[in-house]
Amino acid sequence: xxxxxxxxxxxxxxxxxxxxxxxxxxxxxxxxxxxxxxxxxxxxxxxxxxxxxxxxxxxxxxxxxxxxxxxxxxxxxxxxxxxxxxxxxxxxxxxxxxxxxxxxxxxxxxxxxxxxxxxxxxxxxxxxxxx
Length: 131
Hints:
Layout (H helix, E strand, L loop, with lengths): L19 E8 L4 E6 L5 E6 L13 H16 L5 E8 L4 H10 L3 E7 L17
Parallel strand pairs: 1-4, 4-5
Antiparallel strand pairs: 1-2, 2-3
Helix pairs in contact: 1-2
């Protein structure tokens, strides 16, 4: 005899409404990653140049960073985001274009801060190349 089936009900995931958040832009030489978080650091939306459909050397272009930033901002605006603080990290070419795209989508940028790490006499540099 077969055992009777038991059904489990799941709660529907509730969309939270966040008005103020943070945007973390990590711009490397190969890619640009944009994460939009609430004030505590929980990720609301994210995107990258690779996730936006760019491959290879085109991922590192400013246009790819713009497309990725618009995609992440669109997801965040759907959850009620209005004002953001921007934290830039890295030295890639997508830094400025990502911030410009955020403001063009209708998000209000309240502050821009560079949080790129600077070594305080960290790792030993490579020795010079022989000629």
